[in-house]
C-alpha cells in the first residue's frame, strides 16, 4: 500500500532474518490496545498512511539532518542523505 501511494516502483525484497535479529514476528492487537490502553483507532489505515507520507515529505530536511548526526555510527545511512 505504501509503495502504491508513494509511486515507488521498487519491488519488495523480503529476506530471511539476520543472525542477530531476535524480534520475531510482531503483530498489533486492536482488542488488546483497546483493553489495556483504551486506544481505538480514529481513522482508516489508508488515511493514516497518507498523512504519514505527507508529514514525512514536509519534514524531509529535518529528518535528513537528524539522520546525518548519526552518520558516523551508521555509515550505511549516507546513501539516503546524499
Quick synopsis:
Helices cover 49% and strands 0% of the residues.
Explain the layout of strands and helices.
Layout: H1 2-6, H2 30-37, H3 45-58, H4 60-68, H5 78-81
Give a description of the structure.
With 82 residues, this protein is mainly α. Helix content is 49%, strand content 0%. The protein contains 5 helices and no strands. It has helices at residues 2-6, 30-37, 45-58, 60-68, 78-81. The radius of gyration is 17 Å and the shape is extended. The protein starts with a helix and ends with a helix. The model has no long low-confidence stretch (mean pLDDT 88).
Q: Keywords for this structure?
A:
mainly alpha; 49% helix
Shape descriptor reads extended
Which structural class do you get from the secondary structure elements?
A: mainly alpha
Helix/strand order, N-terminal first? HHHHH
Multimerization status: single chain
In percent, how much strand structure appears in the residues? under 5%
Give the N-terminus to C-terminus distance in angstroms: 26 Å
Largest sheet: none
Count of strand segments: 0
Q: In angstroms, what is the radius of gyration?
A: 17 Å
Uncertain parts: none
Total helical segments: 5
Helix content: 40-55%
Would you tell me the overall average pLDDT?
Answer: 88
Amino acid at each position: 500500500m505504501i509503495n502504491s501511494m508513494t509511486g515507488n516502483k521498487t519491488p519488495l525484497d523480503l529476506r530471511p532474518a539476520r543472525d542477530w535479529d531476535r524480534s520475531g514476528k510482531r503483530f498489533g492487537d486492536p482488542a488488546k490496545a483497546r483493553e489495556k490502553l483504551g486506544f481505538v483507532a480514529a481513522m482508516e489505515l489508508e488515511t493514516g498512511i497518507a498523512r504519514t507520507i505527507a508529514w514525512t515529505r514536509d519534514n524531509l530536511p529535518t529528518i535528513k539532518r537528524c539522520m546525518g548526526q548519526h552518520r558516523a555510527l551508521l555509515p550505511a545511512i549516507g546513501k539516503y542523505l546524499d
